[in-house]
Every structure is written in C-alpha cells, then in structure tokens.
Fold Cobalt-precorrin 5A hydrolase.
Amino acid sequence: MIRIISLTERGKKLSEAIAKRLQGCEVTHNPKPFKETVQDYFKQGDSLIFICATGIVIRTLAPVLESKLSDPAVLVMDEFGRFVIPLLSGHEGGANHLASQLEKQLADFNTQLVMTTANTYLDPIYTLGMGCERDCPLSYLEELMLEALALKGLAPEDIRSLNSIDIKSDETHLIALAQKYGWAYVTYSVQELGTMESRLNSRSEYVYKTVGVYGVAESAALYGVQEAAGATPELLLPKIKNAKATCALARAYPASNREASRRQ
C-alpha cells in the first residue's frame, strides 16, 4: 500500500489530489499518536509519502530503520507540491520510481523531482513471476498481480513480461492475464530457473519436490528480467500469495545503460 501522510490542511488537499491519480493510495491526515502510528506503517511495509518537513520524517523513522534492502520507500513533499524527494530506499524500495510517477502525475502542480541517489538516469526493467494452481481463475491472478504492483508503486505499463515455469506454458489464465495487459508471456525450464536459486528470498521444499525448483514466482521473475536486461537481476518484491497463486517482482538495469553510465 502507498500511504500519504499529511499534517496541514493544505497538505491534506495535496494528499487527496495524489490519491485520485495513483492507484493503491490511502490518505492519512495528522495521525495520532504520530510517531507510533507512522512507525507501525513503516514496519508493516507501506510505501510512505510524507507531506511535511524532512526533519520530522527523519526524526520519526530513525529508530526503526533497518536496511535499504528491506525498508519500504519513503518520499517527502512540500505542501505546495513543488518538490518530491525520494528519501529512503530509492533503488531497492522503489522510492525513485514512485517519485518519478508523482512528478508526471502532478504536472499541473509543476512538481519537480529532486533525486540524490547515484545512477538515477538509468531506467530499470521490471518483470513479474507467477505460479498458480492448474486452471487458476483469472480473478485470483489479477488481484494478486495488482497487489504486488501497488506494494512497489508500479503500474501495469511498467512491466516488461509475465514469466513462469514451462509446465505452465499452456496455463489459460496466465496467458489471458498477459494478453489483457499487453505483456509477453514467457516460460522457462527447471534448469534455467534453477540458476536463480541463490537469489531467492524463500525456498519451499514442497515446491521443489513438486516441480523441481524452490520457488516458481521468484525464480521466473529473476530469470525473466536477466534475459530481458542482459544484466544481473535483483528481487524487488519477494513472493506474495493468495489461496491459489504466487507472485514476485524482479528488476535489472540494462547492460547497455550501465555501459553508457561508465562512459559518462
């Protein structure tokens, strides 16, 4: 979830404008007790957009910060919407991407993105990996996919491909999901997916005994983005699941972009 936190009436109006333009947003105005409530949001993994002074955010979140690899995205905006700053988890948590989305969606506010992390001009490739029960209904797949994207502040148009294991090459509703959103649907062999084992966040012995890999969604997302980018993949969102399906997100920065950055 993307949670927008405001403290002033002007900030609240900006929050409401943002929530109308970005999916998966919830407005929280002047929560009380402020420190404890905000820290709870952070610890449960919500992406946070603060409309207030940067110092307030730093002092509030400092006690609960852990790692850029696990902390959620944190952004700060002024109450006039003039600037948006990715403050925490710019690359790993998706704060840079979310800030870029805000800059585009708030063009009428003349919002300017203020980026401070390295290599911010590199455009990443994002891929989805999914596994599911045989003949899983489309609704289960689509709801889980949209939840995954919302958790990282992504939209369907940001995704390059939907990926799975080759035994799912004829899975009707995975194919239908890809077609609905205009994605390529690609499946891979057990041997190919097995090369991603060291990059998995979780490993299931049951899944391994059933299909031959320790996790379909994570493995497929990682291998798919490695193939698309020609570069080292990273797991952006570890596997989430519902009653019938699993879903994961991966990201990589294209090798050609990295080479261009080294020449600059």
Observations:
- The chain has a mean pLDDT of 90.
